[in-house]
Amino acid sequence: MIVHIAVVDDEEKIRQGLAKLIEMTGDEYKIVGVYSGGLELLGELGSLELDLVFTDIKMPQMNGLQLIEQVQRRRPKVKFAVLSGFSDFEFARGAIRQGVEDYLLKPVDQDELEALLRRVKNNLELERYRKAVAAEEHIRLLLGSDVRHLPGHMTEGAGRELSQIGLFREHFAVVLLRTDPELTGERLAFYMEAWNREHRSFVWEPRQSVIVVAIGKGDHDDTARGIASTLLQRIPHAVQARIGVSAVHQGPLKLRDAYLEAEAAMQQVWYEDGIKAMNDYLHLSRRPEDVSGLLRLLDKDFRPALQLLDLPRAENALRGWLEEAGKLRPAWPALSEAASAVFGLLRGELSGRQTRLPAGESEDEQLRLSPGRFVSWHTFTSELMESASALLHILKEARQENRVVETVKAYVQEHYTEELELQRLADRVFLTPSYLSKLFKTETGETITDYIISVRIAHAKEHLIRNPALKTYEVGELVGYGDPAYFNKVFKKGRRTDAQRIP
Q1: Which residues does the record list as 4-aspartylphosphate (modified residue) (predicted)?
Q2: What percent of the chain has pLDDT over 70?
Q3: Which residues contact 455 (CB under 8 A, 6 or more apart)?
Q4: Which stretch of DSSP H or E encloses residue 415?
Q5: Is residue 175's pLDDT more than 90?
Q6: DSSP letters along 336-364, please?
Q7: 3 state SS of 180
Q8: d(CA 348, CA 333)
Q9: 426: helix, coil or strand?
Q10: pTM of the predicted model, to two decimals?
Q11: Concatenated DSSP letters for 203-269?
C-alpha cells in the first residue's frame, strides 16, 4: 500500500528536508503536501488523500496540538507524528496522550524516521485488513439472512458500518457467477478489472461467487446488466459460465433482496444452452413453481414402463421427461423434488424385488442432485441420467436373476415327482449349485429344498382331495417320496405350517 503523507512546519528548510528524507525512504511513502502552517493544511484537507501528518509542535497562529485536534475532528482516521526539540518535550508528551504515533527530535535521524514510517505503514495495513474482514462479514450476514429475522443490534451495526464504505455510498447490484471449472479469486479479480468501479466478491459455494458492485449516479437501470455482460465476455470460452443479475438497490439492508433477485435470474438462465449465458431480474419470464405437473409427466410413461420392467422404454421415458422439464424451466426446489421422486420410484422397484442398492450408493438423491450443485441444466441432466441408468442396470440384472429363479420353479413344478438334486437344477440354468442356492434364497426368502417340499405337499393334498381312499405311501410315491416314513413326517410338518398361516 501507499502511505500518503503531509508535512507541516513553519521552517521551510526543515519541512522541505523532511519531505525529501521521507521520499528517499521508499516508493510506498508519498508526499501529498508540504505546508508552512496548520491553517494552510486545513484549507486543503477536504481534497487530500491523507494517512499521516508530520507536524511541528511550536508554530505561529496554530500550534501542533491544536492542528491535531482540528484534523481529528474532521478526519479521525488520519495518524500523526510530531517534530520537537529537547525544550519541547512536555508538548511532545502531551501530543502522545492525544493519540499521536510518535515524535521525532530535530534534527531528524534517518533511521528513526524509517522505523516510524514502517510502524505506521504496518498499523495502517492491519487496520485496513481488519476493516475489510469486518465489512466482508457484514456483507455475508446481510446477503444470507432476512433482516426481519436478525436481532436489531446486528442489522443496525452492519448497516451503519457498511454505509461508511464507498460500495454502498449510492446504489449497488448483486451479480451471481457460476463457472465450471471454478475460477480462483485472483483470476476473477483480473476479469473484473474492466469494470473500473468499486466491488466486492465472495466465494459463496462451490463454483459460485457473489459479487456486489457499486452503481453510481450517472448509471441507469441496465448498467448492472452491462457490466455483467462485460465480465462474461472476459471469461475464457473454455470455462462454462452462468450469470444472474439483480435489479439496482440502495442501502446495505437491501442486500438479501438483491441476492434473491440475482438467484432467481440465475435459476432461469441455468437452463440455457451453450457455454455462456446470463440474465437479469428485470427480464425474467414466468415459470411454474408447482411440482405437480412434473410428477404427472413421470406418471405418464416412466412409472408404467418401470412397473413392467420395460427398461429401455423406462430410460427413453426419463429422457423425454427431462426434455419436457427443460422446456418448463421449473424453479430449483420444484426440480429437486421431482428428481427425488424419480429415484424414489427406482428404489421402490428395487426394494419390491428384494434387490439391494450397491454399497456406497446414496439414497439422498434430493441432496446429491440438488440443481444448485451444477453449473448448468446440461450438467445436471447428464448426472441424473448417469445415476438413473446405473439403477436401471441393477434392475435389469435383477430381472435376469428373477428369470433364473422362475426357470427353476417351473422345472420343479414339472418334475416334482423325480429326484431333484441341486446339481441337476443348477445345470439347467448354467450356474454353480452354491450360487443358485444363494440366489434362490435371496429372491424368494426360502431354500430350494423348502420350495420342492412345498410343491410336493401341495400336489399330495390335491391327490387326497381327488381320491381320499389312497394310502399314505401311495400318495408319497405319486409326489416323489419313496420312503413312506419320511413322507409322513414331511406331510405332517407341511400341514402344521399351513395351519399356522391361517388367520
Answers
A1: 56
A2: 89
A3: 412, 413, 416
A4: helix 377-415
A5: yes
A6: HHHHHHHHHHHHHHHHHTT-PPPTT--S-
A7: strand
A8: 22
A9: helix
A10: 0.61
A11: EEETTEEEEEEEE-TT--TTHHHHHHHHHHHHS-TTSEEEEEE---EESGGGHHHHHHHHHHHHHHH
Q: Where do we find the cell 416323489?
A: 480
Angle between the N-to-C axes of helices 433-444 and 448-466, in degrees from 0 to 180, rounded to the nearest 10: 70
**Coil/strand/helix, residue 153:** helix
Q: Confidence class of residue 356 from pLDDT cuts 50, 70 and 90? A: low
Do residues 39 and 61 lie in contact, with contact meaning Cβ atoms separated by under 8 Å? yes
Q: How is 62-91 classified by DSSP, letter by letter?
A: S-HHHHHHHHHHH-TT-EEEEEE-GGGHHH
Percentages (nearest 5) of helix, strand, coil residues in the chain: 60, 15, 25
* Residue appearing with cell numbers 455482460: 229
First-to-last CA distance in the chain?
Answer: 87
Average pLDDT, the chain: 85
Closest CA to 85 of 11, 7, 138: 11
Report d(CA 332, CA 408) in Å as an integer.
48
CA dist list (Å): 388 to 5, 100, 311, 324, 384: 66, 70, 11, 17, 6
The amino acid at residue 43 is G
Cis check: omega of the bond before 181, within 30 degrees of 0? yes
Say how far apart CA 35 and CA 30 lie, in whole Å.
15
Say what angle helices 110-144 and 12-25 make with each other, to 10 degrees. 60
Which residue(s) pair with 201 in the sheet? 211
- Cα 201 to the chain's mean position, in Å? 15
Which amino acid is residue 212, in one-letter code? V
Q: Is the CB of residue 460 less than 8 Å from the CB of residue 491? A: yes
Is cis: bond before 503, omega within 30 of 0? no
